[in-house]
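Structure first, sequence second, as always.
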């Protein structure tokens, strides 16, 4: 994974072939406090939705409680968001997320916020598997990497 934000993001419309490992999908309820004075969802809310989706992936595939037994946790190093259309209180968006890349200690996740097959927002996050005692990135468990690679 590169530190260059331009390389971190690649539009889905570029025709790249997507492999959606650890894919999850869930409805998103737009709340009144999510919208700003223009009555559209504030840009920062999308990042919160990304976090909710990433947490759902962890809950399903690698619960935080398991990681914490070894004082490990995923940490975020980059977030990139591309807004396509505004969402209002009337919308009923669906969040989609998957792990795009996973290696020894680094990961990247991909996100889409859609409604009726219309893309409203997409993004990526990148980060590391981090040990809180050592205060540095550590390797994912071998079994977890093997599981990911088998998908």
């Amino acid at each position: 994974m590169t530190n260059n934000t331009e390389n971190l993001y690649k539009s889905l419309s570029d025709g790249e072939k997507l492999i959606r490992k650890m894919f999850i999908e869930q409805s998103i309820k737009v709340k009144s406090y999510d919208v700003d004075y223009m009555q559209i969802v504030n840009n920062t809310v999308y990042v919160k939705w990304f976090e909710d989706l990433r947490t759902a992936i962890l809950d399903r595939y690698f619960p935080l409680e398991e990681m914490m037994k070894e004082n490990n946790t995923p940490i975020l190093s980059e977030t990139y968001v591309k807004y396509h259309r505004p969402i209002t209180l009337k919308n009923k968006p669906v969040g989609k997320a998957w792990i795009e890349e996973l290696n020894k200690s680094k990961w990247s996740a991909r996100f889409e916020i859609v409604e009726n097959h219309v893309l409203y927002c997409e993004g990526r996050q990148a980060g590391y598997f981090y040990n809180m005692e050592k205060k540095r990135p550590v390797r994912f468990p071998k079994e977890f990497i093997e599981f990911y690679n088998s998908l």
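Margin note: Residues 1-17 have pLDDT under 50 and may be disordered.
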